[in-house]
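Anyone have tokens for LSU m5C1962 methyltransferase RlmI? Sequence:
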Amino acid sequence: MKTQPLILRKDQERRLLAGHCWTYSNEVDTQATPLKSLEPGQPVEILSSHQRWIGHGYVNPHSLICARIVSRDPNHPLSPALWLQRIHDALTLRERLYDQPYYRLVFGESDGLPGLIVDRYGDLLGVQITTAGMERARGEIMAALEQVVRPQSIVLRNDTAVRALEGLDQKVEVVLGSPSDAIRLVEHGLEYTAAPLTGQKTGWFFDQSENRARLARYGVGKRVLDVCSYIGAWGVRAAALGAERVSCVDSSESALAHLAENAARNGLEDRIDRIQGDAFEVLRALRDEGRRFDTVLLDPPAFIKRRKDEKDGVQAYQRLNRLGIELLEPGGLLVTSSCSFHMGRDNFLRTVQQAGRRAGRSLQLLEVGQQGPDHPVQPAIPETAYLKTLFMRALPAF
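Reply: yep, here.
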């Protein structure tokens, strides 16, 4: 059966020809291609207004991003063979990078599979499908993952809010095996357990792994504060690097309980304190108590999820960083992150710098980290470069 054409308005193909894969609804010629006649997830051939062939993709007429290109080869439409090839290519990169099977296996657009995220925990795969096009091909994609990776278990973490934008339901499903909700992983010589069924995202944040490794270069001192600690990836790492006392702050009681288990697993439980509460409130309380730390780690959730949240989000980043800087000893290390794509690197650095001035400190930027290579950046798709981690030294104002 011939694939439905999706015809763009005049001069709307430039970004796609440069390598981006998203088409917005206002870029489609709705006279030539009535969007309402198409089904969510339906395969399409994207054409310019002059009938220039651009790529194979899928459509969702109910979404602002109404189409995504998956293949730029006319001879390779969406098919089981295409999924197999893309997943094989993704695995080849990760096996080149990592000697143990703990990483992000598929990173959506960057791996030519927009709408698909796969994290690997040894023999378990945590999968998120975020678009109607990938949901439509779900059976074929699961079969491809089984054939290429040979996992014992697959968990679908389709409980992310972004699915609502695509008109998809939200739920967690086990589609292969009978996995435990305590899966082992190893990162930089430390052993952790993550919760693939109930944890945040798919249970772990692989994107910060390379940045956590960088802590060893700078030293963490005796006293460390880990804010938005989740289940201890940063805090346990700091304790393993020699910190005598690590105070971990998170709003989730279950996450902190899991953190305690991960600390004990590595023989570090006597060095870690847990503080449950809102990050801003806890930081203010610590400041008022006169507490000081040699290293402050700030890894909050995204404060800017949409462009319209930018003003409030920038203010939140500034408040959090000011409070963190105020708790640092002179010469202390600040490691601060933003996973908001809409907060660009320069804007984030400027925001942290302003926070330093308001805290009465001068900051030195030592290094800028980004997501690890298992989250590769597609240069034509700036949205794939989202994580910024600043390593900074805080000194008295000068």
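DSSP finds eleven helices and 19 strands in the chain.
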